[in-house]
Amino acid sequence: MVKNILIVDDSRIMRNIVKNIFLQLKIPCEFVEAADGQEALQKLLAGEIHMVLLDWNMPKLLGIDFLKKVRNIERFKELPIIMITSESAKYNVIDAIDAGVTDYIVKPIDEKLFLQKISQVVI
What we know:
The protein is of the alpha/beta class. The chain has helices spanning about 10-25, 35-45, 65-70, 90-100, 110-120; strands at about 5-10, 30-35, 50-55, 80-85, 105. The chain has a single domain, classed as Rossmann fold (3-Layer(aba) Sandwich), CATH 3.40.50. The chain has a five-stranded parallel beta sheet, sandwiched between helices. The longest helix is centred in the first third of the chain and has 12 residues, at about 10-25. The radius of gyration is 13 Å and the shape is globular. The protein starts with a strand and ends with a helix.
């Protein structure tokens, strides 16, 4: 089955980096991209998404606020959401865990760690 991966980051370069690393898994997937949390929420509600890779700092709707909104929607309670962010403070990680994040990766992305965490979710 082809996985639909929603990549949410206001940086096109970062979205491309994430896609390129993800493709190393060689899992059949399609990428849906959003530049902010508001756009991501619209795309999530409109399509079938199997995983969200989410940045924290974005215009219109922060990643943490997107996460909270999504976790309040019953059909998305179990959706894998991995936050990929430069926010490394302990309180940020705790906020994300409390909000229901599946996993948390700090930028710059360590490729080996990224592949390990993604593999645990999609395989």
